[in-house]
């Protein structure tokens, strides 16, 4: 079991940033990455559809003998991780959550932060409870079309710079921006430019990777040293022939 792969899934390319952090931190582990591109984006869909998509992705990866699972999607995490853990209770399941708590701890006395999230995350009770603990210092901002824009412009991300500037313009006094969707890591530089470099950016990828490493260790599932890692990629998108 220790030599088995770790499953990682997202609706598209966003989770690749989480995968990279995991692979860097655990170079001896093998990974299987599943991009559910056929149903991308998750963030604009009803909760029931997101839950079904996440459960099917988890089931597919565990059917490939994965020893653990990383839900590399904030939307799927907030919507479906409890269901995934209930269904696969014998395996470690790690979620990706907006780095609200680390950001809140580091804000200045009068500081404010913008949490960029999908519509589904914005409307979730779990995210609302998280923000409520932050004394009004975290401003949630749903941008429904942003993940799809990023997915469509990964080869020319600067093309959406005007859109990013317009979204953030009303929040020019923010001290930090929380990336509440794995896709948003691709626009980190555009966000910095929108604030002339004077902003802190938080995402949950490093925290998820560290949590995975910890859970593997306490479950005695860490890969043997020196065996060599690797990554396999899969997609649900079916191209026309």
What's the mean pLDDT score?
95
Distance between the termini: 38 Å
Number of helices: 10
What name does the CATH topology of the largest domain carry?
Answer: Rossmann fold
The percentage helix is 25-40%
Total number of distinct structural domains: 2
In the predicted model, the low-confidence regions spanning at least 5 consecutive residues are none
So what's the oligomer here?
single chain
Strand % is 15-25%
The name of the CATH architecture of the largest domain is 3-Layer(aba) Sandwich
Give a summary of the structure in a few sentences:
The protein is of the alpha/beta class and 241 residues long. The chain is built from 10 helices and 9 strands. The chain has 2 domains: 6-96 and 205-235, Rossmann fold, CATH 3.40.50.1860; 100-202, Rossmann fold, CATH 3.40.50.1860.
Task: Explain the overall architecture.
It is built from 10 helices and 9 strands. The model has no long low-confidence stretch (mean pLDDT 95). Helix 2 crosses helix 3 and helix 8 crosses helix 9. Helix 1 links the parallel strand 1 and strand 2. Strands 4-3-1-2-9 form a 5-stranded parallel beta sheet, sandwiched between helices. It has 2 domains: 122 residues, Rossmann fold, CATH 3.40.50; 103 residues, Rossmann fold, CATH 3.40.50. 40% of the residues lie in helices and 17% in strands.
């Amino acid at each position: 079991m220790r030599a088995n792969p770790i499953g990682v899934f997202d609706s598209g390319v966003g989770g690749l940033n989480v995968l990279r952090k995991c692979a860097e931190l655990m170079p001896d582990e093998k990974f299987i990455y599943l991009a559910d591109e056929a149903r991308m984006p998750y963030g604009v869909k009803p909760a029931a559809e997101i839950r079904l998509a996440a459960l099917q992705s988890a089931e597919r990866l565990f059917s490939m003998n994965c020893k653990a699972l990383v839900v590399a999607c904030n939307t799927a995490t907030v919507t479906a991780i409890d269901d995934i853990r209930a269904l696969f209770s014998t395996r470690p399941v790690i979620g990706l959550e907006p780095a609200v708590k680390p950001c809140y701890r580091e804000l200045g006395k009068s500081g404010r932060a913008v949490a960029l999230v999908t519509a589904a995350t914005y409307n979730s009770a779990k995210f609302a409870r998280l923000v409520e603990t932050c004394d009004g210092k975290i401003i949630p901002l749903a941008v429904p079309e942003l993940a799809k824009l990023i997915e469509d412009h990964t080869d020319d991300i600067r093309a959406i710079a005007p859109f990013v500037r317009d979204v953030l313009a009303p929040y020019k006094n923010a001290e930090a921006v929380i990336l509440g969707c794995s896709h948003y890591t691709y626009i980190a530089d555009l966000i910095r430019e929108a604030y002339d470099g004077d902003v802190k950016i938080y995402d949950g990828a490093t925290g998820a990777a560290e949590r995975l490493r910890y859970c593997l260790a306490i479950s005695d599932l860490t890969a043997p040293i020196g065996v060599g890692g690797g990554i396999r990629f899969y997609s649900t998108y079916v191209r026309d022939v």
